[in-house]
Design brief:
The protein is an alpha+beta fold and 285 residues long. It is 22% helix and 37% strand. It is built from 7 helices and 12 strands. The longest helix is centred in the N-terminal third of the chain and has 19 residues, at 37-55. It starts with a strand and ends with a helix.
């Protein structure tokens, strides 16, 4: 370690991962968003009106945009019959972008201890390109998990049939957990495919210089392509900095906003709803 002028210890660990984003998540009552897409967007607009009123006193500014971003994806989680991945704090998720016909597999490791999470080797093998992220996930009331993930575009015909298939993409996985049951078969958790809709287009400012915005997002899971009633609804907001230059003022603003939403959003919040990952695994019971 080295000493700074103020006597603080500067971390010298070459494996130190930068927290590239902080994301705050809150589960909503899915029944509030029943109906076709037009009705869902109408409900989303009503929600945003209430959220804006809660956020305004604490943020530097609150804004929306007419350029609302929509994403449609099919999402599946894979695990063994005895949930070996989940039991070792890993998640294997597959997302298929409906419009782009792009298949992305994600290996994610979550842990409440930052140093345990960042110590995993999440890099893909050389033939794959990957978008690696180290993030902080925050849930009510203020529970934190450190998430180290690797998102990799894979060929449409590549099979995820066994743990060995995952290890072929992410060779650090079998090195991290010993013994590694490579021949264990994988299946879609709960036999479930989530038809996901993501709606973005609103944000609030938490820093003047440089300007930093917290981007808001609504995520809905449906059981089928034509379903009008979502099974899961999530509100989230996040902000990013590739150098982890988060200030106390930024953190304070977002903390106060998150706590205010929890106490003031009322009937929109579902205190009994599970996170998306927990929902999938609950279907497998």
């Amino acid at each position: 370690t080295a000493r700074t002028r103020r006597g603080k210890t500067k971390l010298g660990d070459k494996n130190m991962q930068i927290v590239g984003s902080r994301e705050y998540k809150l589960m909503l009552r899915a029944s509030k968003f029943k109906g076709d897409e037009a009705k869902m967007l109408e409900s989303a607009g009503a929600l945003w009106g209430e959220l804006a009123a809660i956020i305004v006193p604490h943020a530097l500014s609150v804004s929306g945009t007419s350029d609302i971003e929509h994403k449609r994806r099919e999402v599946r989680f894979f695990d063994t019959a005895d949930k070996w991945l989940r039991g070792n704090d890993y998640v294997v998720r597959e997302r298929v972008d409906i419009e782009a016909s792009q298949r992305v597999v994600t290996l994610k490791f979550r842990h409440p201890d930052r140093y345990i999470s960042q110590g995993r080797d999440m890099a893909p093998s050389k033939e794959f390109e990957s978008d690696m992220k180290f993030e902080e996930d925050i849930k009510p009331e203020f529970l934190k998990l450190y998430s180290f993930s690797s998102n990799t575009v894979i060929p449409q015909d590549l099979k995820l049939a066994t743990l060995a298939d995952v290890a072929a993409i992410y060779p650090g996985l079998p090195k991290a957990v010993d013994p590694f049951p490579e021949t264990e078969k994988l299946k879609a958790v709960g036999g479930f495919t989530a038809h996901e809709r993501v709606v973005k287009g609103t944000n609030f400012q938490i820093r003047k210089n440089p300007e930093t915005l917290a981007e808001c997002c609504l995520t809905f899971w449906y059981g089928g392509k034509t379903d009008d009633d979502p099974l899961v609804a999530e509100f989230s907001f996040k902000y990013e900095d590739p150098e982890e230059g988060y200030t106390a003022k930024m953190a304070r603003r977002t903390y106060v906003v998150f706590m205010a939403i929890q106490s003031q959003l009322g009937a929109w919040i579902d205190p009994k709803s599970m996170t998306k990952t927990a929902y999938v695994y609950a279907r497998a019971k």
